[in-house]
Amino acid sequence: MRILFVVPNVPSLIRTRPFNFIRELSRIHEVSVLCLATNESDDQFASELKRYCHSLDIIRLPRWRSLSNCLLALFSSKSLRCAYFYSPSLRERVKAMVDSGGIDLVHVEHLKSVPMVEDAIGKVPTVFDAVDSISMFESRRRKIIQNPLLQVFSWMEWKRMAHWEEKASQQFNSVVISSPIDKEQYSTSGQMQKGIHVVPNAVDLEHFGCQQFETQKNLIVFCAKLDYFPNQDAALYFVRSVWPLLRARRSELQLEIVGSNPPRSVSELNGKNNIRVLASVRDVRPHVGRAAVAVCPIRLRAGTQFKVLEAMALGVPVVATRICCPGLAVEPGKHLLVADTPEEFASAVELALDNHSLRANLIRAGRDYVERNHDWTECVRVLCDVYAEARADFEGSREVLALSQ
């Protein structure tokens, strides 16, 4: 099958869901990829991605264009997220490729891509990967924002995203999403014309194998994309609320915050209070793999937390907030430790450091859980079943249309 894969960023080992979908699909299908590059650093990912693509078109989206789009969107019902990533050039390219007759199915990742594939709807089967519920994320984000102006913008975005999520879910032949809790949010947001299928996030089990990294007994790690607001909030929350408690009890502890594009509020933590911020890391495995404990102090979430899955796959005990768990079929105390308040979190980290039998059980159960539930090969098999359903739905719609004429 000839698949056109449309995504708002360059897929990579950092943007792992689309990258691994493309990699696995390319084993049996012909995958052409259209994506946007919003900064020059995206170029470094192209060479690896090309290995799995029949064709790869990366379209530049200048920052001035994104800001102009957002300014115009303020006076409309469009989501600012969707507006920021809107590219007329990408939309024209999608239309040209579909109209050429060389595409059997269009896979659209994220709500941000939807406005650019509208010309393909009704011409070929289309599948929308919502990934997660952005309206749910905005609803939670508003509760911790203190700036009144930002609260207003967050409320506007929440309302707009809820509208666009409902609209998008009804436009496509099939819809997929990454977790049951996000599916529930989509299903209750409006009248659903199509079923929603959960295709969970996963881990490259070969890449994130239980390698023999030498554990540094005093090292705590938080690894995440630091240009994403929930991860920024998590890093700052941990440093401000949990780290002082741990340091007061164990002055020898060290914290590494690993992730690309940290904001100034995070990068300026480097070198203070036994904290290192590592922003230019191509391979996170050695940094996570040698940690004594991996933390995931997320307070805002949608979707599944890759950082939890990757740490468990590497055989590192995880301490996470409860909000990380609904998208995972994990059992607190067996696969990972769960804590919400700063005191609970600090105590859980100490427990994971000191209780050797618990550590061994967490390492074993965590890796076993990931192997059983989050293998990309199995996830893409489910995705291919969704593709078959989308094609059947498309053909059925065409037959109904033909009979009505």
Question: What keywords describe this structure?
Answer:
13 strands, 405 residues, 16% strand, alpha/beta, 7-stranded parallel β-sheet, Rossmann fold
How would you characterize this protein structure?
With 405 residues, the protein is α/β, with parallel strands linked by helices. The chain folds into two domains: 2-202 and 376-404, Rossmann fold (3-Layer(aba) Sandwich); 216-373, Glycogen Phosphorylase B (Rossmann fold, 3-Layer(aba) Sandwich), CATH 3.40.50. Helices cover 45% and strands 16% of the residues. The protein contains 15 helices and 13 strands. The strands form two sheets. Strands 3-2-1-4-5-6-7 form a seven-stranded parallel beta sheet, sandwiched between helices. It has a six-stranded parallel beta sheet with strand order 10-9-8-11-12-13, sandwiched between helices. The longest helix is centred in the C-terminal third of the chain and has 29 residues, at 376-404. It is globular and about 65 Å long. 47% of the residues are buried. The model has no long low-confidence stretch (mean pLDDT 90).
Brief synopsis:
This protein has about 400 residues and is of the alpha/beta class. It contains 15 helices and 13 strands.
Order of strands in the sheet with most strands: 3-2-1-4-5-6-7
Shape descriptor reads: globular
Average predicted confidence as pLDDT: 90
CATH topology of the largest domain: Rossmann fold
Beta strand count = 13
Number of domains: 2
- Secondary-structure arrangement, i.e. CATH architecture of the largest domain: 3-Layer(aba) Sandwich
Question: Quick one: CATH class of the largest domain?
Answer: Alpha Beta
Q: How many separate helices?
A: 15
Beta content: 15-25%
The largest pleated sheet is described as: 7 strands, parallel
Helix-strand makeup class: alpha/beta
Tell me the Rg in angstroms: 22 Å
**N- and C-termini, Cα separation:** 30 Å
Secondary structure: helix percent: 40-55%
| Low-pLDDT sequence parts | none
Find the CATH superfamily of the largest domain. Answer: Glycogen Phosphorylase B
H and E order: EHEHEHHHEEHHEHEEHEHEHEHEEHHH
